[in-house]
Structures are given as C-alpha cells and as structure tokens.
Specification:
seven-stranded parallel β-sheet, alpha/beta, Rossmann fold, 276 residues
C-alpha cells in the first residue's frame, strides 16, 4: 500500500493519532483526504490548512456511531475526491472505569470502538470489491491484544475491534482487500491526559507521540502487515500472554498493585502537613 496518489478517509481526525495520520498522508502525496470528527470546527480547520498546502482535503463533522453518517462520509469522498483507496477508522472512546461504568458508557464504547468499524466496512467494501482492491485500517489498541487496567469497557471493545478486523482479513483477504489493526500502547493524546492513565501506560512502555505512531503506520501499510505495533514490545507481551495466561494475569495484577502503591505515595507526599 502506497499513500501517494491514493484517496484516504480518516475518522477521529481532529487531534491525536488522527490528525497526525492526516498530516503524514498529505506529506506522502495522497491524492485526496476526507477528514471527519465530531469536532467539526477543528477538523475543518485542519482540512483547510492541508488543502492550502497542496493536498486536496475535505473536512466534515460526523458521528461515526451513526451508520448514516459513515455512509455519507464515503459518498462525500467519492463525490469530491474519487473512489476510496484507504479508510482509516480511527475514532475511539475510553470509559476510565471498571464494571461500575454505566450502561450508557458501555454502549458508547461499543458504538465507537466496534460498530463504527462495522459501518465503515459496510460503506466502502462494495466499491473496493468491485474495483478489486482497497485497504481498511482500524485503530484498535494494545488493549485489544492485552489489557488496559482500570478500563473494562475500553479493553473489551478494543478486543472486539481486533477480532472484527481479523474477520474482515479472513473473509476478503483473497479478494484484493487488505486489513490492518493499529495497536499502539501509550500515546500522548487527549485520551491520555489524566495522570493515572499516563502512569498506567508509562509503567508498561514508553509513551509515543502521535507523529511516531503515524511513522509506524506508513511502514506497516507499505509492508501490508495485519498488526501494526508502534511499540514492538507489545508482540512479546502478547506471546507471553498466550504461553502462560495465568502467569501473565498474575504479573499484570502485581504491576497494577505496585503502581497503585506508588501513586498513593505521591498523593500522600502532595498533601499539605496538618495544621497544629
């Protein structure tokens, strides 16, 4: 997969990984970009900037949890840019909680982290299959292969996202359709601003910039790898999990306990001394 000369759709493009992908695709010579996000103002500003720099770019406000919105994205791209070569289903949502998260939060994670991928595939696959080629990039997470301690809904739905991407690769891999699952670990973005979230992610590996993730995506697409792992250590973590599931789970529990103890010590040190 070469980005040069391709028409690309990126959802969740207003910030973080999405905007880094958009900028990198423009730099790689994409023929056209369709950028979408709930934050219409920010994504339209980014599209205008990239268009001025020479890459034909359209920005639209969109809710990817609505199938009609996703179909409209593809129709808009085809109308203004041409047939979609690469659809990057990138929008994501975390809950920041365990099973105590409300049913509404669980449903929102399911709709954003799983069904948005389903809607994207339904919208672009007919045209891609007719042309005999196309690429789907699903932003999942290392949590989709491992765990995100403290966020049950995020972990569960990201596992489902990886499984769905695998289903697409099995069903359409011999019909010209390529599929990749992007599974980074810790990335500096709007989803990782909380100190406790950053602490958990940093405990398991280096936090990367969105631009570093975009670099890994370009390489992964060129090699047409199913798993794109900006953090290479995730592969060994996954192998360890498969080889000894009980031992791996115990290790994660121990790491979380140590991390919680460290955070508590920091909190205690930050508390002002009692007034006497």
């Amino acid at each position: 997969m070469q980005i040069s000369g391709s028409v690309v759709v990126v959802t969740g493009a207003a910030g973080g990984i999405g905007s880094a992908l958009a900028r990198r695709f423009a730099a790689e010579g994409a023929r056209g970009l369709l950028l979408a996000d709930l934050d219409a103002g920010r994504v339209e500003d980014l599209a205008l900037a990239l268009d001025r720099e020479g890459c034909h770019t359209v920005g639209v406000g969109s809710d990817v949890t609505r199938e009609s919105d996703v179909r409209a994205l593809v129709e808009t791209a085809e109308k203004h840019l041409g047939p979609v070569d690469l659809f990057c289903s990138n929008a994501g949502l975390g809950s920041g909680a365990g099973i105590e998260a409300s049913n509404e939060v669980w449903q929102a994670c399911w709709d954003t982290n799983v069904m948005a991928h389903v809607y994207a595939a339904r919208a672009v696959l007919p045209g891609m299959l007719k042309r005999g080629h196309g690429y789907l990039l699903h932003t999942a997470s290392a949590a989709g292969l491992l765990q995100m301690p403290g966020d049950a809904a995020y972990t569960a739905t990201k596992h489902a996202a990886v499984a769905f991407a695998e289903s697409l690769a099995v069903a359409y891999g011999d019909r010209g359709i390529k599929v990749s699952a992007l599974c980074p670990q810790g990335v500096h973005s709007g989803m990782t601003t909380r100190e406790d979230v950053r602490a958990v992610l940093s405990a398991f590996g280096e936090m990367l910039t969105p631009e570093q993730v975009a670099d890994a995506v370009i390489q992964g697409l060129a090699e047409e790898r199913f798993l794109i792992l900006p953090h290479p250590e995730v592969a060994s973590y996954e192998q360890g999990r498969a080889a000894d599931r009980d031992g791996w789970l115990a290790g994660v529990r121990n790491a979380v306990e140590q991390l919680e103890a460290t955070l508590q010590r920091r909190l205690n040190l930050a508390e002002p001394p009692p007034v006497r």
